[in-house]
Amino acid sequence: MKTHPDQASAFAAVSALFVSFISILLAVAALWMQRRHNYKSLTPIASLPIGDYENLIEVKLRNTGVGPLIVKKFTATKDHERKKNIVSFMPKLPEGIYWDTFYNDLEGLCVPPNETAIIIKLCGDPKDEKFAKFRDKVRNELKNVTIEVQYRDIYNRNMLNKCRDLKWFGRHDCK
Q: Quick one: which of 3, 84, 106, 126 could link to 54 by a disulfide (CB 3.0–4.6 Å)?
């Protein structure tokens, strides 16, 4: 090499080119593995918790996963009748009582990880006779409703549908 300095320079240049090419391949492989990891790990998991208390009735959609949950379709079914919301099955509101919140249409709703969307909620004073009667009517309607959520993740992958009947609201029946 002492007698041919051009060969040494050429060898160094080719070696640098080879090392650069290998580092580019390693970087691409690392990015691919990171993307694959994110694709697998950013998965939403839907749950449908309910609340039935003397002063509160609610049905919620909770994302217990680690990726955003995007609702494709929400269906409430009662006696073979299907609707896009629960509130359509509810009795007429009496004077002075209002829903705290409800959704008419959940399609397209995005629920972040560890967050909750309240689908329907009724709050009031259980000592108020008008509220107590209406609360019991709502329970009576909800006990016959089944809800289903079709949802996807941010990569547009369809997740398993989440379904729940709301029979729990009928546990107060003494019949």
A: 126
Tens of pLDDT, residues 54-66: 999 999 999 999 9
Nearest to 120 by CA among 103, 140, 97: 103
Question: Per the confidence metrics, is the pTM higher than 0.85?
Answer: no
pLDDT, one tens digit per residue, over 4-58 is 777 878 888 888 889 999 999 999 999 999 888 877 778 999 999 999 999 999 9
Which tokens go with 105? Answer: 């249409």
CA-based nearest residue to 113, from 79, 159, 67: 67
CA 43 to chain centre: 10
10, 144, 169: which is closest to 80 by C-alpha? Answer: 144
- For the chain, percent of residues with pLDDT exceeding 70: 97
